[in-house]
Amino acid sequence: MKDTGRLEAELKKKGYKLTEQRRLIIEVFSENPGHHTAQEIFDLAKRKLRSINFSTIYRNLELLSALDIINKLYIESGTSHYELCGGTHHHHIICKGCGETREMNICPYESLEEEKLNELGFKVTDHKFKIYGYCSKCRP
What we know:
The protein is α+β, with helices and mostly antiparallel strands.
């Protein structure tokens, strides 16, 4: 995980401050690694700072996502999940039944021929893969 000092520097470079609320969100992710919904992050943050409200958490998650500090995973069910950027390179498998999201440590991009993209005049700067299906509990 990225440390708070490094995140503060990233925010400052992009014209933002590490507010108490943003620091709290980063702490929640550091203490609870993985993927979380905005509601889960709010519930965890509320244990630390009772006066915080859901809209503050949500606005800051959206900002941190736009700044590539937090990765927002769009889930087919309509509930997005968030994770702190900077961990190991991974992709996700997502259950269409219960929404369980798990990391997979394989990268389908590695098997693509980047030369073909270059021939098309396209320079890849980032990629994300999500595979949807059903977990063993939800499999029809």
